[in-house]
Specification:
rod-shaped; alpha+beta; 5 helices; 5-stranded mixed β-sheet; about 45% helix
């Protein structure tokens, strides 16, 4: 408790600078609001030099939450923007893919290889091996396909 009662603007400034440096090393925005909160607390603690440590901690908490929320509201859509929207959606990347049946279909089921994966396929009719098919849908671990002309 003795350390807390000795908190000054310099402590908050140093904490804020350290947090912003850590943010620059790749924290992806997680430390930005906390670092800004610490620096703003340093400014307020410097202006109001008789601020108690409880008030400083409360000020830090409120300012950190406010800065984090403002950052999130302002920049969240920028973080979601991508030139490859299907990058983490394996199912969506399979839609429209074309492949060749590796064996004759029986009971409306067959197999194709897409990239390095062997997939079970379902169709509305049986096709012979070597038929070029197009993926229409993904149903769990099987693909719904139709023959390409």
């Amino acid at each position: 408790m003795e350390f807390l009662s000795g908190l000054s603007a310099w402590h908050w400034l140093i904490l804020g600078i350290i947090l912003l440096i850590l943010e620059m090393l790749g924290a992806a925005g997680f430390l930005l609001g906390i670092g800004v909160g610490a620096i703003l607390t340093a400014v307020i603690a410097a202006v109001l030099s008789d601020m108690s440590w409880q008030a400083q901690l409360l000020c830090f908490a409120v300012l950190s939450i406010a800065a984090t929320c403002l950052y999130w509201m302002r920049f969240r859509h920028i973080n979601e923007a991508t030139d490859q929207p299907l990058l983490n959606s394996a199912e969506a990347r399979l839609l429209g893919k074309e492949a060749v049946l590796i064996a004759d279909m029986s009971a409306l089921k067959g197999k194709v290889q897409i990239a390095d994966t062997l997939w079970e396929v379902n169709a509305t009719e049986n096709y012979p091996a070597g038929t070029k098919v197009k993926v229409l849908a993904v149903n769990g671990m099987s693909l719904q396909v139709e023959a390409q002309s």
